[in-house]
Every structure is written in structure tokens, then in C-alpha cells.
């Protein structure tokens, strides 16, 4: 008889191995899905995972890896802090939108000035916008004990409506011939988040993501606050006795993840996307949840997971244009990845033991 | 702006229609949470139910068959959640989120060829004299059968939880799974059944949106109704009749803001459209002070070590 036996401590080997096994399992299950859709599974998987890196047009796709990976990593790093402490911010998409709106709005207020201070101002405003949006669930949770999952998620829908409102009204390009959407920030040098080295895809968002990874690593491994975060997640009772202040922790975790998501939004809107428009957001805030788990809530893991997830986005686009693979198939693929990961986590925390049925 | 164009009788009748998907999904989730499981995948199961029901109804021409298919699809998706949380002992919050993300993708994939298709209509019931009564008729006796099913379901779940032995066992499992296990109840099995029920209800609720409320298929059409249903369970403090009340409140807000949009009130459309979500938050804040009625084992996994 097969029995599950709880390991005294989570297995380190399996904790590292499960993401890899999960990716492999997803490739197989995804291949079956693509086959069911009438596409050649081997070709589809190759198009998604191989072509962007080593294919004929890889020189074009490789920079995209940084462009798409940076916001995912930036958001996921913030989320992972909260997830570790059992604080569930799942409204990063809303904080991303609000960061972009606040950042772009702060910049556009000075249009068409030409000052080196405008972009830094936008960065600060973007971070503050995301932070403020995340503070709503944080304050409601600490003051009234309201569930942060539901509030942060509801605020995504509010943010989406607000985005529609500003791109049709407040931030609409006055010279845009009545089309919705703000001025294009790419054509205004003072606000453009341009590539730092041409042709690499490296923009300020990538730099910020790398800094966030390092900061999170130091915080979690070398700092008292990081220790408190881990303690609250793994042993809430012990954390209480150790004098961890839960209110401060909630405010810090939600605030940080909101600010990082806001930054990601600002870098996106001033760079790759270029303008505030009704649908400039493409769901990075939700995909980042998968990235955070796939990276085992560990900063370095998240960096790798962000790259992998960016790969599925780019590869998915290629597969869509070359093979006619529907874009939703990639969404399913990403969802499956999280499923496999969660299921395989069983092996990290439990040992599968074979035992003789007991004689009663 | 012309507020007199809003007909109060039609308003109440459409309020009940708007409330039904939220109600059915919330009742399902209420049972799941009563068994001590927090399934955050309601949105994913609803949208999957919406497309499964829609596709089946279009292909077979029978909306009723569509609802059965939707219940099946929702339950099938909830099996994944059940496996993850009950067998593989995965974190319930993470698994629920996974279910939602997966369901949104899956539904978009399944629904590609159904965009813009018109589903077969579900006819409203018509009781000779009663349905023709002036005000009461359209409000009480002129709806489709699923709407009445939702109300009957509420009553059934209330009675089951309050008066039956099965309800008592379910509540015991949700309050203290160790004690229930010690008494010989199969905690995992009971929870799995509750999860299946929740999935089927969410599926029906989703199909109600795509087949009756809207009725057509668009990607991501549930637009957070699943999450509102989750909030509604908290709002209702895990009591079925209060869920009904809450669903009608949210249905009312949705319908009133739609009517105000149509009447051309001076408030921008976007701000009206965000009102149901804002009101959900406000209601959550007001009611979250009292957590005493939450099932004690909510969100905690059970593993019998010996």
C-alpha cells in the first residue's frame, strides 16, 4: 500500500528539482494539447522553447527576452516576499496599471519640457502609484482584518476601469485626432525609457529587476526583516512569540510588491509599450504569480523562472504567427505549469513510502 | 439624462437575473468552505462552465443540456483542485489561483469558434394567471427555470446544513478535521465531494451568464463574478439565506449602474462600471470585523499521519 509520510524537513533536492520536472511534464502535456489542436507537437515545442533562443531569427527575439522578462521578475520578486509570509497580494495587475498611469501622468504634466529630471520623477511617481494602490488592501487588512486576496483582486477591475477612463479622458493625447490613448512617450526623449545599449533590449526596467533580485536576496538571507518574513510564513506561532509585528509586515510586504509592480508598469509604458492605452497591460501581474511559484519564491529562482516565462510569451507569439497556434493555448500552457509544479511539490514535503497493510 | 425611462418592475426582474450566477456560485463555494476548504478557483470554474455550457447548448440546441455540461465541466476542473489540495497536499490559495489562471486560458481556447454565435434561447416559464399579474407577474413568475433552481438550491443547502446528519458531518469536518477523523469520518472524501459540488455550482453559474444573462460568448466574460461570489460567502458569514440577500444586493448594484449608464447620467461610464467592485470592497470591510462564524479549519490541509 502506498502511503505518504511527512518529511521532517522539506527535501532540498526535490525543492530544486520540481520546477525542472514540472517544466518537462508541462512540455509533454502541452505537446498533447497542441496535438489535439492539430499542430505538430514537436514543432510547436521547438518553436516555443528553441527558436527564440537559437533559431534563425534569434538575434531579433533574444532582446525581447529581457523586455518581457523584466516586468515579470520585478513583479514576482515583490509578490514572493508576501507569499513567503502568507500575505497574498494577487492584485499586482492593478498596481502595475496604477503605477503606469501615475508615472506617465507625472511625466506628461511637464510636456513638452526637456529636463533630465522628468524620467526620474516618473519612476518615483510610478513606484508611489503602485505602492498607494497596494496600501488599500494593506491598510484594510491591518485596520479591519479584511481579506487582502479579495480586496487586491477587486482593485484590479477598478484599476482597469480607471485606465479606460484616463486613456479616454485625462491623459488622452490632445493631438491624437480623437483616438484613445496618451501621447507616445517613445517620441519624447525626456520621458522615453530607451534601450541603454542599442539592440540588447536592456532598458531601465531590466536594471531595476536585477537590483530587486539582489536586494531581495540580501533581505531574505542577511536581514532581520527577511528572517521575520520567512518565520511568519513557516511558523506563525513562533513568529508571534518572537515579537514579530504582523501589522508592519503586512504593510511592508504589500507596499513593496505594489511599488515594484508600479515600477514595472512605468518602465513598460514609457518603453516597450510607449503609451497609456485601454489595453496596454497584458496580464503580467497574473503571470508573475506563476513566475514567483516557479522560482520557488527564491530571488535567483525567480530570475530564471522569469526568463522561462518570457520565453513562452515570445515563443507563443512565434508559434501563433508561424503555425497558427491560438494565443490562448499559451495561457493554458502557463496555467498547466503551475498545476504540475504544485502537484509535484508533494515530493518536496512528503516521502512516498510503501508499507504493508496493518493488521488490525 | 432621463431617469424616468427606468422601469422599476423590469429593474427588479433583471436584478434577479443578474444575481443568479453570483448566487449559485456562492452557494457552491459556501458548501466547500463549510467543509474547511478555500477554493479560490471559482472564477476559473465559472468561465469554463460558461463556455462548456454555451458550446453544448449551441451544438445540441438545448440550453438545459448546456447547463448539465457546464456543471460537469466545473466539477471536472474542481477535481484538479481536489487532487492538488486533498491528495497532493498543495497550498489551497496557490492551487485556487492556478485553477483560475488555467480556467481562463482553457475557456479562451475552447471558445475561439464560438465568438459571435447566438445561443438557443431558454424560454421563461409561463403560468397562465400568475405570470400575467401586473407587477408581481414579471418579478415572481416570469423567469427561466434556472433562476428558481438557484433559490431552491439555497433552501436545500440551508436545510441540509441545518437539519440533516450529512450537514452536521460536513460542518464537523470544516470546524475540526482532527476530531472528525477521530470519530471515523473520511475527511478527505467528504471534502472532495464538497469540492465537486462547488465546482458543479460554479459551472452552472458561469453558464447562466453566457446562456441567459448576456447571452453570448466573449473571452473573460465572467469579469470577476467568481471573485465577487467568493466575497459574498464572507459577506453572508457562511449562511445560505444571507448569501441570497447579498447576491440580490450585488445584482441590484450591477443592474442599477447599467441602467444609469443607459439613461446617460453625468457620471462617466467607467466609474459606474467599477461600482460593483468598489461596493464589494466596502461591504467586505464592514463585515470583516466579525470572523467568528468562519469554519475553524478553513484553508487548512488535513493529513492523517497514522
UniProtKB/TrEMBL annotation, chain B:
InterPro entries: ABC_transp_permease (IPR001851). It is a multi-pass membrane protein. The keyword Membrane applies. The chain crosses the membrane at residues 6-28, 40-58, 64-84, 96-115, 135-161, 192-214, 220-238, 245-265, 271-289. The keyword RNA-binding does not apply. Keywords: Cell membrane, Membrane, Transmembrane, Transmembrane helix. It is found in: Cell membrane. GO terms for cellular component: plasma membrane. One of its GO terms (molecular function) is transmembrane transporter activity. Pfam families: BPD_transp_2 (PF02653). This is Urea ABC transporter, permease protein UrtB. It comes from Phaeobacter italicus.
Amino acid at each position: 500500500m502506498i502511503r505518504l509520510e511527512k518529511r521532517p524537513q522539506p527535501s532540498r533536492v526535490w525543492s530544486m528539482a520540481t520546477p525542472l520536472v514540472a517544466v518537462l511534464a508541462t512540455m509533454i502535456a502541452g505537446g498533447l494539447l497542441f496535438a489535439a489542436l492539430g499542430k505538430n507537437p514537436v514543432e510547436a515545442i521547438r518553436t516555443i522553447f528553441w527558436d527564440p533562443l537559437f533559431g534563425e531569427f534569434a538575434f531579433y527575439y533574444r532582446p525581447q527576452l529581457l523586455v518581457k522578462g523584466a516586468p515579470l521578475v520585478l513583479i514576482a520578486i515583490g509578490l514572493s516576499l508576501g507569499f513567503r509570509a502568507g500575505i497574498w497580494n494577487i492584485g499586482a495587475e492593478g498596481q502595475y496599471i496604477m503605477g503606469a498611469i501615475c508615472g506617465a501622468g507625472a511625466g506628461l504634466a511637464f510636456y513638452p519640457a526637456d529636463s533630465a529630471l522628468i524620467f526620474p520623477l516618473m519612476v518615483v511617481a510610478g513606484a508611489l502609484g503602485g505602492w498607494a494602490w497596494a496600501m488599500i488592501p494593506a491598510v484594510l487588512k491591518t485596520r479591519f482584518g479584511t481579506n487582502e486576496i479579495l480586496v487586491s483582486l477587486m482593485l484590479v477591475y477598478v484599476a482597469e476601469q480607471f485606465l479606460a477612463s484616463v486613456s479616454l479622458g485625462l491623459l488622452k493625447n490632445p493631438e491624437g485626432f480623437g483616438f484613445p490613448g496618451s501621447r507616445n512617450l517613445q517620441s519624447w526623449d525626456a520621458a522615453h525609457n530607451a534601450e541603454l545599449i542599442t539592440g540588447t533590449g536592456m532598458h531601465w526596467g531590466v536594471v531595476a529587476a536585477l537590483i530587486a533580485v539582489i536586494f531581495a536576496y540580501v533581505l531574505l538571507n542577511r536581514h532581520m526583516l527577511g528572517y521575520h518574513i520567512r518565520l511568519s510564513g513557516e511558523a506563525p506561532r513562533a513568529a508571534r512569540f518572537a515579537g514579530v509585528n504582523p501589522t508592519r509586515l503586512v504593510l511592508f510586504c504589500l507596499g513593496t510588491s505594489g511599488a515594484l509592480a508600479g515600477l514595472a508598469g512605468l518602465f513598460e509604458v514609457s518603453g516597450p509599450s510607449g503609451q497609456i492605452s485601454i489595453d496596454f497591460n497584458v496580464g503580467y501581474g497574473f503571470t508573475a504569480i506563476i513566475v514567483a511559484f516557479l522560482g520557488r519564491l527564491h530571488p535567483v529562482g525567480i530570475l530564471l523562472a522569469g526568463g522561462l516565462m518570457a520565453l513562452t510569451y515570445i515563443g507563443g507569439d512565434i508559434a501563433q504567427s508561424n503555425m497558427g497556434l491560438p494565443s490562448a493555448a499559451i495561457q493554458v500552457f502557463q496555467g498547466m505549469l503551475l498545476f504540475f509544479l504544485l502537484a509535484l511539490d508533494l515530493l518536496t514535503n512528503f516521502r512516498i513510502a510503501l508499507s504493508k497493510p496493518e493488521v488490525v | 439624462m432621463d431617469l424616468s425611462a427606468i422601469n422599476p418592475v423590469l429593474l427588479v426582474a433583471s436584478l434577479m437575473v443578474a444575481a443568479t450566477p453570483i448566487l449559485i456560485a456562492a452557494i457552491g463555494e459556501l458548501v466547500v468552505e463549510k467543509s474547511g476548504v478555500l477554493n479560490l478557483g471559482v472564477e476559473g470554474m465559472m468561465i469554463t462552465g460558461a463556455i462548456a455550457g454555451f458550446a453544448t447548448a449551441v451544438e445540441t440546441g438545448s440550453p438545459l443540456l448546456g447547463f448539465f455540461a457546464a456543471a460537469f465541466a466545473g466539477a471536472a476542473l474542481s477535481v484538479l483542485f481536489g487532487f492538488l489540495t486533498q491528495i497532493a497536499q498543495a497550498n489551497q490559495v496557490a492551487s485556487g489561483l492556478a485553477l483560475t489562471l488555467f480556467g481562463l486560458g482553457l475557456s479562451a481556447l475552447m471558445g475561439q469558434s464560438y465568438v459571435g454565435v447566438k445561443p438557443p434561447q431558454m424560454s421563461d416559464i409561463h403560468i397562465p394567471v400568475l405570470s400575467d399579474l401586473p407587477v408581481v407577474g414579471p418579478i415572481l413568475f416570469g423567469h427561466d427555470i434556472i433562476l428558481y433552481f438557484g433559490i431552491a438550491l439555497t433552501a436545500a443547502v440551508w436545510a441540509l446544513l441545518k437539519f440533516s446528519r450529512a450537514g452536521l458531518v460536513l460542518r464537523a469536518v470544516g470546524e475540526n478535521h482532527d476530531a472528525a477523523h477521530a470519530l471515523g469520518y473520511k475527511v478527505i472524501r467528504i471534502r472532495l465531494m464538497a469540492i465537486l459540488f462547488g465546482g458543479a455550482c460554479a459551472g452552472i453559474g458561469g453558464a447562466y451568464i453566457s446562456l441567459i444573462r448576456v447571452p453570448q460568448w466573449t473571452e473573460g466574460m465572467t469579469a470577476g463574478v467568481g471573485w465577487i461570489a467568493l466575497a459574498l460567502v464572507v459577506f453572508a458569514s457562511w449562511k445560505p439565506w444571507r448569501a441570497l440577500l447579498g447576491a440580490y444586493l450585488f445584482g441590484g448594484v450591477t443592474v442599477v449602474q447599467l441602467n444609469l449608464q443607459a439613461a446617460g447620467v453625468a457620471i462617466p461610464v467607467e466609474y459606474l462600471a467599477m461600482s460593483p467592485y468598489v461596493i464589494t470592497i466596502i461591504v467586505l470591510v464592514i463585515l470583516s470585523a466579525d470572523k467568528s462564524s468562519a469554519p475553524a479549519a478553513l484553508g487548512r490541509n488535513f493529513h492523517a499521519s497514522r
